[in-house]
Design brief:
Blueprint lengths: L1 E4 L2 E4 L6 H7 L7 E5 L2 E3 L14 E6 L1 E2 L7 E2 L1
Parallel strand pairs: 1-5
Antiparallel strand pairs: 1-2, 3-4, 3-5, 6-7
Length: 74
């Protein structure tokens, strides 16, 4: 199946969950927010949400610093 992940087309296997996608990409789920087709997913739903052909996934990584004094940017 075809997925659009952070603006790039990517092949995914049938039955792939959001957790599985993050595992495949070697991304720790506690360090990101995931938007699926325009909707932010709660982290506890990552294992149960199964991706479908044509889905658009945005993975947003949290970063500390860079936003001024004591702020965090992401």
């Amino acid at each position: 199946m075809q997925l659009k992940v952070n603006g790039r087309m990517q092949q995914g296997r049938e039955g792939l969950s959001v957790t599985g996608l993050l595992d495949d990409l070697k991304i720790h789920p506690q360090r990101v927010a995931v938007q699926l087709n325009g909707t932010i997913l709660k982290r506890e739903r990552f294992p149960e949400v199964v991706l479908k052909d044509g889905d658009t996934v945005e993975i947003i990584t949290f970063m500390a610093g860079g936003a001024g004094e004591g702020g965090a940017a992401w």
